Every structure is written in structure tokens, then in C-alpha cells.
């Protein structure tokens, strides 16, 4: 499979965003660009958990419904969800209705509060696991890395759920903790520049 494709605007992009218009915007404006906002980090951890066994396309298509259902993924609100909220979400056809994953988000929201109380912010803790140097050659995308395994282990030790090392590596790619834009992709250098300007929490 070619690792680069030329978009309708003539710009070279990573192969995986071909064929679906929302992927282009997600690739160009979000994926691989560093994020330090606690709510956005928690949202992405939650959505990656929902993606387990599914495709990101499925989740991205439902993202606004997830945001509406989970109060914008404000973990200080979600941590207070009870059985009625679980029932409400199980009845929401606009999201992935999986009890285990829904309950994991609620559990993880409480764990996020613990992390903030201990570390000062969720971002500060999570970014402490970002690798200082690339862990694989450009263009070779592993399912997991030593850094994702370390972060996954730390999250699970803290009681988080649906945070295996493969799920966490996808999270790290998306949040700009690593730069996995393909060589030749117009956004690889842009993401690298954004990372160079980024002040880790």
C-alpha cells in the first residue's frame, strides 16, 4: 500500500485519510498536533477506548453525539454519573452502546480527578511519558511502543480501564506525543514544528 496519497487540493497526505472527507480535516487540523488541554486529552482517551474492536471512522462519525452524551467529556461532571446516566447512554442510538465502555469512561473520569489532584493536571502526568526521541523509523508504524506500554501500565495501575498499550499508542499519535505523519506528508513538518513550539505542561 502506498503510504502517501494526493488530496483533491494537490497536497500530499498520509494514506489512511484517503476516501472520506471528514478524515482530511481530522488529519490536517488535529492528528499529530500536540494537545495540553485536560478535557481534550480525556475525551481522546475515552474515544480510543470506545474504538477498541471498531474503526476510528465509526467513532469520528459519532464524536459530536459522544460529546453531547458525556457533557463534553468534562471529567469533573462525568465522574458523578450514576446508574441513570448509564441507562441514558445505553439508550442513545447516536453513540456506541457498550455498557463496559460506558462504565469505563465514568470510572476513568474519577481516576482523572485523582491524577489532577496528585499531579496538578492530567496533561502534566500524561506528557511525562512522551518519548524524548523517536522509537521507530519514520514511516514504520508499530501497534505499540515502549512509551505506550509505560503509559498504559501507569494508567492501569491507577485504575483506568480500556487503556491497553495499542489503544494508548493510537492516543499518543493523535495527541502529538509522537509524530507519525508519513515521510512526504505535507503535515509531517508542520506537526514537527508545532511540537518544537509546544511547551510540555
Describe the fold and architecture.
The protein has 201 residues and is mostly helical. It has a single domain, classed as Endonuclease III, domain 1, CATH 1.10.340.30. It has helices at residues 21-29, 38-51, 56-61, 63-69, 75-78, 83-90, 99-119, 122-127, 146-157, 165-174, 186-197, and strands at residues 4-6, 12-14. It has a two-stranded antiparallel sheet with strand order 1-2. Strand 1 and strand 2 (12-14) form a beta hairpin. Helix 2 runs antiparallel to helix 7 (99-119), helix 2 crosses helix 10 (165-174) and helix 9 packs across helix 10. One of its GO terms (molecular function) is metal ion binding. It holds the Pfam family Adenine_glyco.
Enter the CATH topology name: Endonuclease III, domain 1
Q: Considering the protein shown, what is the CATH homologous superfamily?
A: Hypothetical protein, domain 2
State the domain count.
Answer: 1
Beta fraction of the residues? under 5%
How many DSSP E strands?
A: 2
Strand order of the largest sheet: 1-2
Return the string of H and E elements: EEHHHHHHHHHHH
Poorly predicted residue ranges: none
The mean pLDDT is: 95
Q: What's the CATH C level?
A: Mainly Alpha
Amino acid at each position: 500500500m502506498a503510504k502517501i496519497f494526493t488530496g483533491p487540493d494537490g497536497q500530499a497526505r498520509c494514506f489512511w485519510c484517503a476516501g472520506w472527507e471528514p478524515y482530511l480535516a481530522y488529519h490536517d487540523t488535529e492528528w499529530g498536533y500536540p494537545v495540553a488541554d485536560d478535557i481534550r486529552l480525556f475525551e481522546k482517551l475515552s474515544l480510543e477506548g470506545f474504538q477498541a474492536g471498531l474503526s476510528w471512522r465509526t467513532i469520528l462519525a459519532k464524536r459530536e453525539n459522544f460529546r453531547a452524551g458525556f457533557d463534553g467529556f468534562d471529567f469533573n461532571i462525568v465522574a458523578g454519573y450514576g446508574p441513570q446516566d448509564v441507562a441514558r447512554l445505553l439508550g442513545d442510538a447516536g453513540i456506541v452502546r457498550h455498557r463496559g465502555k460506558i462504565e469505563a469512561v465514568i470510572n476513568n473520569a474519577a481516576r482523572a480527578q485523582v491524577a489532577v489532584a496528585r499531579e496538578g493536571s492530567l496533561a502534566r502526568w500524561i506528557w511525562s511519558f512522551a518519548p524524548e526521541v523517536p522509537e521507530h523509523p519514520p514511516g514504520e508504524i508499530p501497534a505499540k511502543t515502549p512509551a505506550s506500554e509505560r503509559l498504559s501500565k501507569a494508567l492501569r495501575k491507577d485504575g483506568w480501564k480500556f487503556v491497553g498499550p495499542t489503544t494508548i499508542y493510537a492516543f499518543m499519535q493523535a495527541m502529538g506525543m509522537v509524530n507519525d505523519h508519513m515521510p512526504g506528508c505535507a503535515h509531517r513538518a508542520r506537526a514537527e514544528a508545532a511540537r518544537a513550539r509546544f511547551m510540555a505542561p
